[in-house]
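Problem 12. The chain below contains 739 residues. Write out its predicted structure in token notation.
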Amino acid sequence: MTLPDTYSQDEKNELERQFGVLLQCWKSRKNDQDVALVTEAYLLAANAHKDARRRSGEPYMYHPLAVATIIAGEMGMGRTSIICALLHDVVEDTDYTLEYISEHFGDKVAQIVDGVTKLTSEDFDESVKSLQAETFKKVIMSMSYDIRVILVKLADRLHNMRTLSSMPHHKQLKIASETTQIYAPLAYRLGLYKIKLELDDLCLKYINPQVYESVEKQLLNLREKKINEIEEFLAPVRNELDKMGISVRTMAIERNVSSVWERMAKFGMSIDEVYDVYVARIIIDCDDVEMEKIRCWETFAVFTKYYYPDNKKMRDWVSFPKTNGYSSIHAVFMNKQGNWIETQIRTKRMDDIAENGFAAYWKYRDKNTTEESGLDLWMKVVKDLVQQADENRVSAIEFIDSFRLDLFNDEIFVFTPKGDKMTLPKGSTVLDFAYSIHSDLGNHCVGANINKNLAPLQTELKMGDQVEVITSEFQEPQEKWFDYLATSGAKSKLKAGIKDFRKVYKEKGKAMLKEYFDKLKIDFSRQNRSDLAESLNFATRNDLYYYVAIKKVGLQEVESFFKRNESSWSDYLVKYLTLGFVRPTSQKKNDGIKEIGGAEGYTIATCCTPIPGDDVVAISLPGQPVQIHHPDCPEAMKLMSRYGQNIVKAKWQFDDDFAFLATLKIFAVNKMGFGAMLFDLITNKEKLDMRSMEMKTEGGMVVTQVSLYVNNLKTLENLIVNIKKIDLVKKVERVGKRS
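Solution.
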């Protein structure tokens, strides 16, 4: 097979050049047979995509070649993964079948390609709410039997993000929000930090381009000064280690744009106030794995000879490596100029794993050990989630929520009374811990001794806690416990526990319900009981019998339902039976005029409160007004990552006399008369209508939150400028807006 003539000679030359780069990047084991198979896959893909072009006009084949190069060069993977990367779009976009792939390249390649292949609307009926969610669920289920599925998907996503500029804006938002919600956290979980950071930056670039450009320029202005500061900080430590015979390599690491912006937004800081914009990294030359911890702590000790550490910010990932293999000491020291410096201490092996993720982790793993690696344990959790999703028939959206809940959070380590270490997602509680050990322990948990101190079951656990669960035979699982849980596994076990507990009341509740039906002369049919249970938002009829048995559902409520008295019934539901989250009512539709892709009803999101002049995204969901958000609003990104096809064009078109509510938080020196000055500026000088002003003193400072009505962003920005001119004011933030 050769390259077809649908490519120009220049394009053929470029394809051959890119294929040569791929072979050069391929550093793992390869022989002539391996190269021959990869070449066959390359030629097959080139022929399969011969008539396809990317939006930029380039041959589509450039894309699978780029994905394969990422797999080989940036992830360090081998033959099978490279072949899958070259063929990952062949089944989805061309006439080639999985059977053909299997016949020529084996079942494993076909299985991985199938796992990566996107689902289309033809694969489902109209009841499916989110194709994005269904596709992601399929990828994760495929990943549970072969990790290479997600590696190919990550490489595919990385190249798509690198070439996103040619896509229309609504597609950019869809792809970037998916990436920041799902694929970047997955890269982090697999230890692919360089890929994760690049994905984060590319997402910010398209979701909030003004912020990206601003932070990038500020980093450029700081670069020379910070590098010199860290070099001066590291010099005495490096010299001391050299005298001790410890060979090290040092460097100043610049945080990526999105990480810096995340810190600025989270703490309301300027870039000058973020102490860890640059990180001092010291890499120790140590070939003896048994000596690595000792060398790291010796190096830490040398730092303490010259600088004071901040013990509250100490992170020991050497004694407790993360499940993805990451290992390093993170410490913060004060330099001679009085500035805090973030410092990372690690060996060459640790650095290789930190930079290249799980591929490097496998390279260093002891082949003779029977101990499960962190990745093995993580994959077990993935398989458990997949199994639970199958057994409970959860929707794709519920599955994604569970996956994010358990697998994307940072992790903590806690200990059992016998000293066994357990890994849990950050935010886990005593009840999560109990359920992670055994369902019965969770179902009968009444509290715990944390570090020998009594604590209730909703107490959040911290790194290093020792936990002893306290149980009682009289305790039973309760619905309110769902609010105490942070892990989907525990929630699933609690759900099963409640179901088993309620079965005890089945016969009693069923008999009582039959009495009610008989009194009302209603047929006690299965259909009538099911309709009643469904109207109460119960999952099963057993739940209905339970509520009847405990007298939360009585004769009056049954009669109301069958008389279709929906008003009184809904009042009852709100009072007694609402479970989980209740969707907040949409805010009243604004009276202004807004152009939203032909849609009529809309609502301004209260989570981010955009005003005219802000960048906005409009999301249309069935049966709801179109929601208007900032593109970087967390809720908007969550919606776009699931309902990308529901993004519609939106353009501000409001009359000048229409006012929007905006909120500012002002930090100022606490001095008598400041409130009067601020009030005078807003109401008399700026002539704005103030809704509320709340002042709270904190030591020598006063924090003021002002809600007021403005016509547009320019008005608000002018107000902020004038507030900052007041001598007492130190900082002004817009509440609900990240930029």
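Discussion. The radius of gyration is 30 Å. Students who got a different answer should revisit the alignment rule from Section 12.3.
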